[in-house]
Write a structure and sequence with these properties.
By secondary structure, the chain is α+β, with helices and mostly antiparallel strands. About 45% of the residues lie in helices and about 20% in strands. The chain has a single domain, classed as Potassium Channel Kv1.1, Chain A. It contains four helices and three strands; from the N terminus they run E-E-H-H-E-H-H. It has a three-stranded mixed β-sheet with strand order 2-1-3. The longest helix has 11 residues, at about 55-65. The relative contact order is 0.22.
């Protein structure tokens, strides 16, 4: 199953980091993502810019939201950014 949304945030050193994700996982596991992606203000965009979190914090949030069998992907795929 391919990722169908990208979350974009700035790292602590100012670099832009794009984190691929699955809308279904985000929506089913987190009320904030549910509101962003399915609520009345959702715009259907495939790229979501996260201004309130650093990319490092975003990856930690995604690790807590993702099912345990997928959480390891975040540590291996994005460790090169941090």
């Amino acid at each position: 199953m391919a990722c169908d949304v990208s979350l974009v945030a700035l790292s602590l050193d100012g670099a832009t980091v794009c984190v691929p994700a699955h809308k279904y996982v985000l929506v089913s596991r987190n009320a904030v993502f549910r509101a962003m992606l399915c609520g009345p203000l959702a715009d259907g965009a495939d790229t979501i810019h996260i201004a309130d979190l650093s990319s490092e914090a975003l990856v930690e949030l995604l690790r807590s939201v993702a099912p345990s069998r997928h959480a390891r992907l975040f540590s291996s795929q994005f460790s090169r950014h941090f």
